[in-house]
């Protein structure tokens, strides 16, 4: 394995492959195929060309003047909102579709919560000409109709998950089940740095371009950030930014969705409020009750509304390398509105959590912060609009 | 003899095992069903499902049963009480089947000891990796005498087959389907179970996932030591609409379902 | 003037400044300020940095494999859909806001039809911290609610134009009127290469980066396009692509909105069906009746729904340099849906007109086409969705 | 003498001119209003607006009047018929005021000749550039004897002021407002009209845009040769609701509106 941080699929005590035997072979094949592809300069070239020509990379690294002034510290935005389909998610979807083509797979499946990863995957599949099935909680389909339509326009089939809380967690179960039933011809594109090994590291690797571009730009300017900040859903945008900085002194801050409050029982702050457990095939921090049943997560931001987190994040938090914080629904909404007015960037509600943290943190003023502006907020217009109405 | 499955090796026809979800359709009815299974001559042993919120290896029927059981507040303690009730009625082996998280949440050692005291024979945890078994389960299972069953499936590598027979102390659970419990995917079962034969060693072999009729069982004759019927059994219990739930009726339906299995299994 | 093609504000017989005396001084000042700024390397640097760091330029030039296959000719997409706010419009808005800052203006006004230029201008103003008023037809405000909300979130005031057809043409009148009443402190950002001199050329200049990037990339690859294709609303995305190629052999194709059909009376095909006239301060091709009253344009695509066109386009068409064609509402919808499924790009309905033309044109197969993918189609989801529903 | 405005230079007090939109509130009523203006002693000359779909120099009142007139089907021929009717009643100058496009659409030469035959004295085309005037209008105006009025506004440069007086053959139209016709923007009118004085040469100076009351007129006394009242006059006509339209009533209102102007204008 090319990542010294992983040992036998584990990051410290977290990670692993808690999967039924019916999927074992898929994971063996996937790990081998990914390692081989990742080490192949032809694959790397095809992948970077695609990121450049289709996704629109590199994305800008922009000094946010008016936001910095408001925070009292220098804040730079890594503009993943400008990536095709409006969020970082597409980096991973394109990488995995390329991998699936290389493996000779003939169908793609994916799970989605708010629909961002589903749209990214459906987009990658349209580009590749691969049939695509996206699993989505029945509840989420109801709440996120425009993304359901986008996926369908892209030619994807959207299947509703009717079990459990009918949200992302259940859609993930459904996708795994489908894969169990169709192990040969199908590749499953997980949407964040979660799930059984090798997904967490593979997904992170397909996003590390975020951090690499950031580092290259800043080094070109002779700058070194003191803080990297990103919101934590499953953790892919955060890891994408953090990976090239893991061995630096730079502080890493992951901002979780506090929901209605850490103590409200309605939260998605997995690291802040969860405990170690096993979900979707990996040992990691999860929200669970005393019986070990998985709890529903709650966040205004559908992309953070997940009761788990990537195992590497759990490890980095447990070892003190990753600092976490939680931001409430209301704080995120306000920060998103403020960023729109100050910078002319309507951020995804997910991203707004990271933004809110930079407003609250205790700065000396000498720090230099890079914030992963992970996505655009067009999809969240309704939510912002009613908040604005309410504020006036 | 409830934790030893070597009896399976010695019988000449495949025995029948029934899976049911603890707390389904409710706690009382589940208890009655266990009573039936304890005494039913066609049933050689039983799997009791421990309901989990995210049962990713299960098909719709067992998913739904887990959901119902959890919605009725079924806890691990309830599972153990049901196991105790079963054990008080018979000596047949009783496997607890479930997912890792609730087990780890209770603590593996506590869980295993509690399971043992409740009279369970062994565990089936489809999402438990071998390493975790070796590190966390092996010694406490050993010391308590509880056994473990691992799965092999049509996609299993040769290594995985060997390992399953090597490691399983109860039996090897052969997944008789491409897919999930209860899935009606077509596959060449015979071919798969023929492929397993060379690896059979020590542990008995039991087929499950998607076995629903006596003819399914007959088709595996000579290839396996036993079969597990789960989803089909739960489906036979009928609607779980609480207002209409009639425990006697549920037990009658279970009895009806088991009848045709009498001739084909030992 | 640095554009040899212009003489005294005219392109051949088209162009000019048909404006009331109350605006004359504004235009004198604007022309001087723009010429001075455009020639100033400091301004140029500030503008390109902003395009890079905020807008996300350069946008990719992508060979569209599956689309090319379908058309039987090599088609490359210039991905303006990846620019911040989702269309080329932002290039012009940022340029003009920089100019307004330089001129010491303290308020920005703009007109908008579908809201794309309004959103781009509101975005530029949020970035610059300038108050912004956007005029929009009352009818359009009703039809394009999400963009109205986006502008408001960006801090802009949206004023409804209640006169005439209550659409873009009337919003433009209102903006001009406001400017007449507030000539000193206000700068008016026109949204396309239309209006009185120097707007057509200034707007085109702020978009010429599209063509310059295209040319640089293709020259780097040793390629020379035979055709450049773009949709024509007011003509800004088209000119942006065409400008650096005006003196080349490359064929220039402008695709107009045929609406319900060229002979239906419900069309926006200004060059194909219009006649020379004077609208919004310039002599150009317009849709008018025998009395010289301006006719309402009709297109499913709000961004093409304008009864005028830039004067340079009129000149290029009159002199045979620009070839035009019209695409109907239905053809555009189908092309947009097809592009979504084949390429994983949901195009703006405006862009879909240009796409449709590449499907219909008579190719030998040896051509090389660059199509300006002027914007993304998230805003048109509803329209595409009902078409898809209807097709099934 | 209907196309010569030099009489303005010779009077010692500002004369009153009224603007109305052709075809407003409908063709018949507009005709009656022109009859009134033709004979009214306070009114020295008249502007007849040629309705246009996109009147970008006009405020809400005249915009609305244009819209109403167009919705009633008013054409240029109707405008000319109204002009003829006016001319048949009096010798007062009649200016046609409008936008370039309908004029170019008809053809400048045809338009000018038709206007002349209809008895018009001159043209006001606020969006006509000087170059276009020189190229397209000057000679045909000259040969027909129709005159032209150009605008100066508070933002006009010194050059523009000189040019307006140089080029206008009717009078110079001084925009008495920052803004549009009828706009109620506050500005220092006196200062502006004082600033114009040095450029006054040949052409008379008439103030318009936003003049609505006798006191507005009085405030310009000594600074201009005449004033044009437009939006205020149209507003005074009251509602244009077709069903309630009473031509006699409209004419009465116009008469009422003009009354207070008698003492202040010559
Ligand atoms: C814009 C955006 N940011 C962040 C996330 C959270 O995911 P992750 O933590 O994997 O980056 C999502 C998920 O949908 C997203 O759409
Ligand atoms: C995506 C897109 N393309 C094209 C146009 C048409 O404008 P223009 O012809 O000025 O490029 C618009 C106008 O809103 C647009 O939004």
Helix/strand layout:
The complex is a heterotetramer, with two copies of chain A (392 residues) and two copies of chain B (266 residues).
Chain A (H helix, E strand, L loop, with lengths): L9 E2 L2 E2 L5 H18 L2 H15 L5 E3 L1 H7 L2 E6 L9 H14 L4 E6 L3 H13 L3 E6 H6 L1 H9 L3 E5 L6 H14 L4 E4 L9 H22 L6 E5 L4 H7 L8 E9 L10 H4 L1 E5 L2 E5 L24 H8 L3 E7 H15 L5 H12 L7 E6 L7 H11 L1
Parallel strand pairs in A: 4-14, 5-6, 5-8, 6-7, 9-10, 9-14, 10-13
Antiparallel strand pairs in A: 1-2, 3-4, 11-12
Helix pairs in contact in A: 2-4, 4-5, 4-9, 5-7, 9-10, 13-14, 13-15
Chain B lengths: L5 H5 L4 E7 L5 H13 L3 E7 L10 H12 L4 H14 L4 E4 L2 H7 L1 H10 L4 E3 L5 H15 L2 E6 L5 H10 L4 E4 L13 H8 L8 E4 L5 H6 L6 E4 L1 H6 L10 H12 L8
Parallel strand pairs in B: 1-2, 1-8, 2-3, 3-4, 4-5, 5-6, 6-7, 7-8
Helix pairs in contact in B: 2-4, 2-12, 5-6, 6-7
The complex binds pyridoxal-5'-phosphate (PLP) (2 copies).
The site of one pyridoxal-5'-phosphate (PLP) has 21 residues of chain C, from helix 5, helix 10 and helix 14.
Structural write-up:
The complex is a heterotetramer, with two copies of chain A (392 residues) and two copies of chain B (266 residues). Chain A is of the alpha/beta class. Chain A folds into two domains: 17-51 and 89-203, Rossmann fold, CATH 3.40.50.1100; 57-87 and 208-391, Rossmann fold, CATH 3.40.50.1100. Chain A is 45% helix and 18% strand. Chain A has helices at residues 21-38, 41-55, 65-71, 89-102, 116-128, 138-143, 145-153, 168-181, 199-220, 236-242, 270-273, 311-318, 329-343, 349-360, 381-391, and strands at residues 10-11, 14-15, 61-63, 74-79, 107-112, 132-137, 157-161, 186-189, 227-231, 251-259, 275-279, 282-286, 322-328, 368-373. In chain A, the strands form four sheets. Chain A has a six-stranded mixed beta sheet with strand order 3-4-14-9-10-13, sandwiched between helices. Chain A has a four-stranded parallel beta sheet with strand order 7-6-5-8, sandwiched between helices. The mean pLDDT of chain A is 96. With 266 residues, chain B is an alpha/beta fold. Chain B has one domain: TIM Barrel. Chain B has helices at residues 6-10, 27-39, 60-71, 76-89, 100-106, 108-117, 130-144, 158-167, 189-196, 214-219, 231-236, 247-258, and strands spanning 15-21, 43-49, 94-97, 122-124, 147-152, 172-175, 205-208, 226-229. Chain B has an eight-stranded parallel barrel with strand order 1-2-3-4-5-6-7-8, surrounded by four helices. In chain B, α2 (27-39) packs parallel to α4 (76-89) and α2 (27-39) packs parallel to α12 (247-258). The longest helix of chain B is centred in the middle third of the chain and has 15 residues, at 130-144. The two termini of chain B are 18 Å apart. Chains in contact: A-B, A-C, C-D. The interface between A and C is large, with 43 and 43 residues. The complex binds pyridoxal-5'-phosphate (PLP) (2 copies). One pyridoxal-5'-phosphate (PLP) is lined by residues 87, 89, 114, 116-117, 192, 231-238, 303-304, 348, 350-351, 374-375 of chain C.
């Amino acid at each position: 394995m090319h990542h010294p941080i992983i040992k036998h699929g584990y990051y410290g005590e977290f990670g692993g492959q808690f999967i039924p035997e019916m999927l074992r072979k898929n994971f063996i094949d996937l790990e081998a195929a990914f390692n081989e592809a990742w080490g192949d300069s032809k694959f790397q070239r095809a992948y970077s060309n695609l990121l450049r020509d289709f996704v629109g990379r590199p994305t800008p690294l922009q000094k946010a003047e008016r936001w910095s002034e408001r925070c009292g510290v220098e804040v730079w935005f890594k503009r993943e909102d400008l990536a095709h389909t409006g969020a970082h998610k597409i980096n991973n979807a394109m990488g995995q579709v390329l991998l699936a083509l290389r493996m000779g797979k003939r169908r793609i499946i994916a799970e989605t919560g708010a629909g961002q990863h589903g749209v990214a995957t459906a987009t990658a599949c349209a580009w590749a000409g691969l049939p695509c099935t996206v699993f989505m909680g029945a509840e989420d389909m109801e709440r996120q109709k425009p993304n359901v339509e986008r996926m369908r326009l892209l030619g994807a089939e959207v299947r509703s998950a009717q079990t459990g809380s009918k949200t992302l967690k259940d859609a993930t179960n459904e996708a795994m089940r489908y894969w169990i039933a169709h192990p040969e011809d199908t590749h499953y594109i997980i949407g964040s740095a979660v799930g059984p090994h090798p997904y967490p590291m593979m997904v992170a690797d397909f996003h590390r371009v975020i951090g690499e571009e950031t580092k290259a730009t800043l080094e070109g300017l002779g700058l070194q950030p003191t803080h990297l900040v990103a919101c934590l859903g499953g953790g892919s945008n955060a890891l994408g930014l953090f990976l090239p900085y893991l061995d630096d002194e730079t502080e890493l801050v992951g901002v979780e969705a506090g929901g209605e409050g850490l103590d409200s029982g309605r939260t998605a702050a997995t690291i802040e409020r969860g405990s170690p457990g096993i979900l979707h095939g990996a040992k990691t921090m999860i929200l669970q009750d005393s019986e070990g049943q998985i709890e529903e997560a709650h966040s205004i931001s559908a992309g953070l509304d997940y009761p788990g987190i990537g195992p590497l994040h759990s490890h980095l938090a447990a070892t003190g390398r990753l600092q976490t914080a939680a931001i409430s629904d209301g704080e995120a909404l306000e920060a998103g509105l403020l960023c729109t007015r100050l910078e002319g960037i309507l951020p995804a509600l997910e991203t707004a959590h990271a933004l809110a943290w930079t407003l609250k943190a205790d700065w000396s003023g000498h720090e230099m912060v890079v914030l992963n502006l992970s996505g655009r907020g067009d999809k969240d217009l309704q939510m912002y609009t009613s908040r604005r109405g309410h504020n006036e | 003899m409830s934790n030893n499955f070597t009896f399976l090796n010695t019988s000449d026809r495949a025995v029948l095992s029934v899976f049911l979800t603890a707390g389904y359709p409710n706690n009382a009815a589940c208890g009655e069903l266990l009573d039936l299974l304890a005494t039913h001559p066609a049933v050689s042993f039983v799997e009791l499902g421990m309901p989990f919120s995210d049962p990713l290896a299960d098909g719709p029927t067992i998913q739904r049963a887990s959901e119902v059981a959890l919605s009725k507040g079924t806890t691990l303690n309830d599972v153990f009480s049901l196991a105790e009730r079963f054990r008080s009625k018979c000596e047949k082996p009783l496997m607890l089947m479930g997912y890792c998280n609730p087990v780890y949440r209770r603590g593996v050692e506590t869980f295993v000891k509690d399971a043992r005291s409740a009279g369970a024979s062994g565990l089936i945890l489809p999402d438990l990796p071998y390493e975790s078994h070796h590190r966390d389960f092996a010694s406490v299972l050993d010391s308590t005498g509880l056994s473990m069953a691992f799965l092999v499936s049509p996609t299993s590598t040769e290594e995985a087959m060997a390992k399953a027979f090597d490691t399983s102390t109860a039996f090897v659970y052969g997944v008789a389907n491409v897919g999930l419990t209860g899935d009606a995917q077509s596959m060449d079962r015979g071919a798969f179970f023929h492929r397993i034969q060379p690896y059979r060693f020590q542990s008995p072999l039991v087929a499950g996932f998607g076995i629903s009729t006596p003819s399914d069982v007959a088709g595996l004759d000579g290839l396996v030591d036993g079969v597990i019927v789960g989803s089909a059994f739960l489906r036979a219990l009928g609607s779980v609409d609480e207002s209409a739930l009639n425990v006697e009726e549920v037990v009658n339906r279970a009895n009806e379902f088991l009848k045709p299995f009498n001739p084909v299994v030992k």
